[in-house]
Amino acid sequence: MALWSGRFEQSVDEFTQRFGASLPVDKYMYRQDIRGSIAHAKMLGKQGVLSRSDVEHIEVGLLEIENQINQGHFKFDVNDEDIHMAVERELTEDIGAAGQRLHTGRSRNDQVATDTRLWAKDLLDGLMAENYSLRKVILRAAHKNYGVIMPGYTHMQHAQPVLFSHHLLAYFWMFTRDFKRLHDAYVAADVCPLGSAALAGTTYPLDRHYTADLLGFDHPTPNSMDAVSDRDYLLDLLYACSVSMMHLSRLCEEIVTWSTTEFGFITLSDSYSTGSSIMPQKKNPDFAELTRGKTGRVYGDLFALMTTMKSLPLAYNKDLQECKEGPLDAAKTLRDCMICMEGMIDTWTVHSHAMLAEAGLGFTAATDVADYLAKRGMPFRKAHEIVGELVLYCEKHKVGLEDLTLEEFRKFSPLFGRDVVGTLDPEKIAQARNTYGGTGHEAVRLQMHEASKALKRDRATVKRMRAKSAGTDTTAE
Ligand code: ARG
Fold first, then answer.
1. C or N: which end of the chain has fewer Cβ atoms within 10 Å?
2. Is 351 tagged catalytic?
């Protein structure tokens, strides 16, 4: 029997009952639903709307239901459209009239909004913690490979030699920005809609600040109509997940490239590779490719919700039921992909000789040779032109800059001296770029120090958030 059976003469069609249900997704929110209901009951008790004994029965009853769901003993009913109805039905069956009084001064509209916000906060908490672990792994790899030189690229062409650590740290900072985006989504979710009722508030003397406080929210929502129909925080979550997947995907693309025979910069460990059913020699970077591929579905989750929201009049509309599956999928996908990335980086083998050998090829010293001339008084534009001619000369003679004699150099400019050789060593080239944020050894050492400070700061943020509202990681199945 439906909760609204008073108004109806016939029960809902069996197919539409299933079609209209959100239980398959929101059953993952049972902890949040129960937390929300306990807080609501306590607030009603404090305000004298419910008796102390009703509140006690409700709390004990709800905790027992949580226990049953935890154990997998809970029996869902075909008529349970969602987790809110399932829990309330069972509570009423278990404790009688007190259970029926719980739904005083609230509606499923503010209930679903509250549960979804609590759940989004828990998902984001888990994602921030994983983002922190991933960055720790990247920083560890940067420390471990400090001194390894690789070619830096623009347009996928050899550009200038860089430290491999510098390259890895570029990703560290991308993921640091992702942490901030996830945290911003958390702040957006951290507002309590409970007590907004169906859309207009209620005549009961609710203390919404108290409920918000009990649930660990920062403050209650200031407008009941916005409260029941706002899903912006889920869009923030989805956007944060999408950008982070994009960063993972870029790194995966590099991992795939670096592990080709042509590059040979890294070898992924067996635990993060797969073989071929026909070609015995194959070792494929499947998990990097899979992460790259999964980026598309997370973007899809973002676009789906953007589209669902775009024409909704105020306040609650059933379309909003569609808002949960995407964020759950995106959060789970991002979390799994971060875990996978941590494993790949932690267990790969870095071939520093292959990287260094490539770092010297493709005239990567050309900028430094031009700088050499400019530092001896030649305008940089002129120096650029002369080195361009030198490169052309080398290409025609199929040699590198390091193969030229001093006489050959001097044919292009008398400013060249014996010490030009010092500008051709890829290791020295990378080492010398010590401007703040550059690839030089000193600059990268400072960068690693700043990275570890950023990690400490973000760990403190996660701890602070957790202290404020004890969360559960609901991405785990
Ligand atoms: N199952 C609904 C959802 O997930 C709950 C809210 C229903 N409210 C309503 N008036 N039908 O969005």
1. C
2. no
